[in-house]
């Protein structure tokens, strides 16, 4: 049996700064095993081969966890979406000792389930107003680390957990990496609103310049409707979601737009996250990860040395 990765992680993580770890056994991933005391984690589980986009999400998630979640981090925020399960996988791979004194805070129903099913300790942001690290997905990220979030209607809790965190990190696949927000995520900025105020907010957003039809003929400004459910999407907080696209000239100033939308009465939270991220990790199709850092620099994590097997799989 190979040496358990946990021991290596222990020694590596006992530093003040988040280390750039290289695990001894990169294939170590306990994907479905809950973390229970006394139970030995498997030391080597082959990583499943994934379609390119999924593999890219996994690369980004693994790189972000390896870089930002260290042993001394005890309160950890877990975001929402399809990339975040890989974050939990990688956290689990740090082993029982690393996780036994940690508490994990969810940004919504989905991440709450993820935490519980992984056997990790669940907490909430009303118990822990200060979080060490929160890792979350995004719908699109621009050159300056501003992002659109709320594709899963979780932006209110996501923003609270992002703000509460000493370090907030984004994980995404290559499709989310843009120069200007709204380039690939064209359906609009997700805006959580008090249900009784939605019609008034829609009117105000229209006056602000959000079109009801996009140039490509697709629907623009709209109340988000449920799929397989009659009526609107209702957020985890009991609110409605409006999707509001804006012309590119307005999207070039996401901070200004955020402030204007947030000032509309009835708006609870806006899915524009500006000046918040420490870094964004984008998994690429070629098995590398592109990291965009707060200082504006880009770093290519070529072949992701921590997990070389992944490169071969993509
Ligand atoms: O903001 C979100 C939910 O409100 C998600 O983080 C965002 O939609 C990204 O999801 P995915 O990882 O599935 O691309």
TrEMBL record:
It comes from the Eukaryota. Pfam families: Rib_5-P_isom_A (PF06026). GO terms for biological process: D-ribose metabolic process; pentose-phosphate shunt, non-oxidative branch. One of its GO terms (cellular component) is cytoplasm. It catalyses: aldehydo-D-ribose 5-phosphate = D-ribulose 5-phosphate. It is an enzyme of class 5 (isomerase). InterPro entries: NagB/RpiA_transferase-like (IPR037171), Ribose5P_isomerase_type_A (IPR004788). One of its GO terms (molecular function) is ribose-5-phosphate isomerase activity. Its EC number is 5.3.1.6. Pathway: Carbohydrate degradation; pentose phosphate pathway; D-ribose 5-phosphate from D-ribulose 5-phosphate (non-oxidative stage): step 1/1. Keywords: Isomerase. Belongs to the ribose 5-phosphate isomerase family. This is Ribose-5-phosphate isomerase. It comes from Kwoniella pini CBS 10737.
């Amino acid at each position: 049996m190979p040496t358990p990765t946990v021991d290596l992680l222990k020694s590596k993580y006992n530093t003040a700064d988040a280390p750039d770890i290289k695990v001894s056994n990169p294939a170590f991933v306990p994907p479905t095993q809950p973390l229970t005391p006394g139970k030995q984690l498997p030391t080597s589980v082959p990583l499943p081969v994934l379609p390119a986009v999924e593999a890219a999400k996994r690369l980004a998630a693994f790189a972000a966890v390896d870089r930002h979640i260290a042993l001394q981090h005890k309160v950890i925020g877990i975001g929402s979406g399809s990339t975040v399960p890989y974050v939990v996988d990688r956290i689990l791979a740090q082993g029982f000792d690393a996780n036994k004194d940690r508490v994990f805070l969810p940004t919504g129903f989905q991440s709450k389930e993820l935490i519980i099913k992984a056997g990790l300790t669940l907490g909430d942001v009303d118990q822990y107003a200060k979080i060490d690290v929160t890792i979350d997905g995004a719908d699109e990220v621009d050159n300056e680390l501003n992002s659109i979030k709320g594709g899963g209607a979780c932006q209110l809790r996501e923003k609270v957990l992002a703000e509460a965190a000493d370090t907030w990190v984004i994980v995404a696949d290559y499709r989310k990496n843009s120069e200007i927000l709204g380039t690939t995520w064209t359906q609009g900025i997700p805006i959580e609103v008090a249900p009784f105020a939605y019609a008034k907010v829609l009117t105000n957003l229209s006056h602000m310049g959000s079109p009801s039809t996009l140039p490509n003929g697709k629907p623009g400004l709209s109340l988000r409707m449920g799929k397989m459910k009659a009526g609107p999407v209702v957020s985890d907080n009991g609110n409605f979601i409006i999707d509001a696209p804006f012309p590119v000239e307005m999207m070039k100033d996401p901070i200004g737009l955020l402030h204007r939308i947030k000032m509309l009465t009835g708006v609870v939270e806006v899915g524009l996250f500006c000046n918040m991220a420490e870094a964004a990790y984008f998994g690429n199709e070629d098995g590398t990860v592109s990291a965009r850092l707060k200082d504006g620099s880009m770093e290519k994590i070529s072949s992701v040395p921590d997990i070389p097997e992944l490169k071969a799989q993509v």
